[in-house]
Amino acid sequence: MAITAQDVKTLRERTGAGMMECKKALVETEGDMDAAVEFMRKRGLAKADKKADRVAAEGAVVASIGEDGRTGAIVEINSETDFVANGDDFQEFAGRVVARILEDDPTDIGALLAMPLEPGGEDIQTAQKELVARIGENIQVRRFQRYACEAGQIHHYLHGSRIGVLIELEGGDESLGRDLCMHIAASRPVCVSVDDVPEDRAAKEREILIAQAQESGKPQEIIEKMVEGRLRKWLAEITLLGQPFVKDPDQTVEALLKDRGARVVRFARLEVGEGIEKREENFAEEVAATIKGG
Fold first, then answer.
1. Which of 110, 126, 148, 177 is positioned for an S-S bond with 122, CB 3.0–4.6 A?
2. What angle do CA 238, 98, 87 make, to 5 degrees?
3. What is the pLDDT of residues 166-176, one digit of tens each?
4. What global pTM score does this model have?
């Protein structure tokens, strides 16, 4: 049967693929629109799989708070470039993913990817692969956090789309919650208090400080005092309560919370690409290789 321009246009709108690919799919399926969509999906998924090993260290952090302020979710979704991360398709996908986290409380990334992006629809992993096929870049849902509480409130802050903070706060108010989130975004605490610092991390830091102090050649009792003092300083630097408050460095966050009768239960800080090893691109070599390959 004849394939009309309107058929191609309709398939392109449904799949987001190029006109020539849509025409080929319609020819392959003898003009059956639904079969062509399925054909394009299968072809698109194959393309997406080929892009899955490409480094995706850009992207966005998005967050959402429930209407009652007692639930909140935050997620990092990666792409290969900022351009794609700022696009409408990426942003719409990210918004739907964080909404699903907020509503359904998945246990881990695997459970999240298996959930439908929308009730009764395709799962998030399939939608992710279709997005990869449509925009031509690797897209990965990397990590997320969801909080729910009964006594306190959940607050969040986004610094652009690259850094996001989610916090559970008992006492205080909206203003304090936002200030604390902004402090965490800027100061990068590892945990709330000294009691929360992992024992192995503290032990490793102590070993390093002892080795450094021994280089001084001072007596052992002096070395021990040096190590304890430096360890206390290090713990203050990495714990939220021990840090000077960014808006008033003359008081610690712990003192601020005491004055306001509030308590930070927990927090999560996500930064786009944190911990991902980015590949150094040499565009001159890439162009030369492309020309040679052609």
1. 126
2. 100
3. 999 999 999 99
4. 0.75
